[in-house]
Design a protein that fits this description.
With 408 residues, the protein is mainly β. The chain is 4% helix and 37% strand.
Length: 408
């Protein structure tokens, strides 16, 4: 639970004395953030853990390390802040975040409860969702979305039964119908499940059909598994025998988004639609801010789960027949929150256990992608590519100026 206590006088920028040498000096306030570790992990607390405070409206960010008490003390202007912390150990990850923390008093105290998780094995390496220019023609192109997943483990892992999807709301600056408000703190409360929109896409196989060796990648075309670069040189070629594709002409009939896969795509590399819960005739991630997740059923098959009560839910306030699939948090293998760089009104859709931060996409149609950083030391020690995985996309990802599959 997050608690904020504000002490003493209110801050009003209009009260700054005329002629003050530092025009912001009179508006600076103290925010003390105390990291509260979960029960049983109190001994994991340590000094030097970086805490980030980002002013939501202006985008200014500040970073302060915790002291021996586990407290990070900020001296920052009045404002509304998003506060986050990631503490990564050898096998444990502790993440916490709080949205809309008001810093307006002389001194504010924030107790930030941390949630425990562990790094994943199959993780999201790259998200290419924003499209590119149609050069040499005019206009924009958005039919070439893909993601890349990566085996970050030292053991062989299998794609069989793995599902991919994105959350509702579709865009980060949209209203979230599943969010409630804590009556005590006034904080926004995310649902205890991940509301997957439109469809459940799943890799086939018998459990060992699609191995992924340590450090190996797999590309999944979300739209057309064709050579887009043949007509649009700034785009990518997604027609490759090793690639997978989301394609189902029964449920998604829009051939602009879903042309028949290219001749090099294997039939068994076409993902299965286990559930169609939306009303769209095309499956697509947001072009500027998807919330992407990998998940896998536990203790039952995904098809069995979809028959259980509460697995498929109505969307509050929605007048269409669209519904969502409620994925339990402990089924999620990896999650990446993307914010829209062209908007200031972004809101979190994943809880800190899944993604304590976010990665911003500057704008759409630039040919950029969102790519996970490489852990150089861990890679050298392991002998294969090991990627950063702190369950905090603010630390793990960066925006590439060209997607990794683009070739000049």
């Amino acid at each position: 639970m997050i608690s904020v206590i504000c002490i003493l006088a209110s801050c009003n920028l209009a009260d700054i004395p005329a002629g003050t040498a530092d025009p912001y000096g009179a508006s600076l306030r103290t925010l003390e953030v105390t990291a509260v570790y979960p029960d049983g992990y109190e001994s994991s607390a340590r000094a030097g853990v970086k805490v980030r405070a980002e002013e939501i409206n202006l985008g200014h960010s500040y970073e302060v390390a915790t002291d021996d008490r586990g407290v990070a003390t900020f001296t920052i202007p009045c404002g509304l802040y998003r506060v986050s912390l990631s503490d990564v150990g050898d096998a444990d990850v502790f993440n916490g975040s709080a949205d809309k923390v008001a810093v307006k008093e002389t001194r504010s105290l924030l107790s930030l409860s941390l949630l425990h998780s562990r790094p994943g094995s199959i993780i999201i390496k790259e998200i290419y969702c924003g499209g590119c220019k149609r050069l040499p023609l005019e206009g924009n192109y958005q039919y070439d979305q893909y993601i890349i997943v990566h085996n970050n483990d030292f053991r062989t892992r299998y794609l069989d039964g793995l599902c991919i999807g994105s959350l509702l709301p579709y865009n980060s600056n949209a209203n979230n119908p599943f969010v409630s408000t804590d009556p005590v703190t006034g904080e926004s409360v995310l649902p205890p499940f991940s509301p997957v929109s439109e469809a459940v896409w799943m890799f086939g196989g018998d459990g060992t059909a699609f191995p992924l060796e340590p450090g190996q990648d797999a590309v999944i075309a979300l739209k057309g598994a064709i050579d887009h670069s043949r007509q649009y040189p700034l785009s990518v070629n997604l027609d490759h025998p090793d690639y997978f594709v989301c394609y189902n002409s029964t449920y998604f009939t829009n051939t602009s988004y879903h042309p028949a896969p290219g001749p090099n795509i294997r039939q068994d590399h076409i993902l299965e639609v286990v559930a169609k819960t939306g009303v769209a005739n095309a499956f697509t991630f947001s072009i500027n801010s998807p919330a992407v997740l990998l998940y896998r059923a536990k203790g039952m098959t995904m098809k069995e789960y979809l028959q259980t009560e509460g697995a498929i839910r109505d969307i509050p306030g929605n007048s269409t027949s669209a519904r969502v699939v409620a994925i339990p948090e402990d089924w999620v293998e990896d999650a990446v929150e993307v914010f829209n760089g062209a908007s200031a009104g972004n809101n979190k859709r994943f809880p800190p256990t899944l993604d304590a931060g976010y990665i911003t996409l500057e704008n759409s149609y630039l040919g950029h992608s969102l790519h996970r950083l490489t852990d150089e030391k861990a890679s050298a020690d392991a002998g294969y590519e090991v990627l950063m995985d702190t369950n905090n996309s603010s630390k793990d990802f960066y925006e590439r100026k060209t997607s990794s599959l683009h070739h000049d």
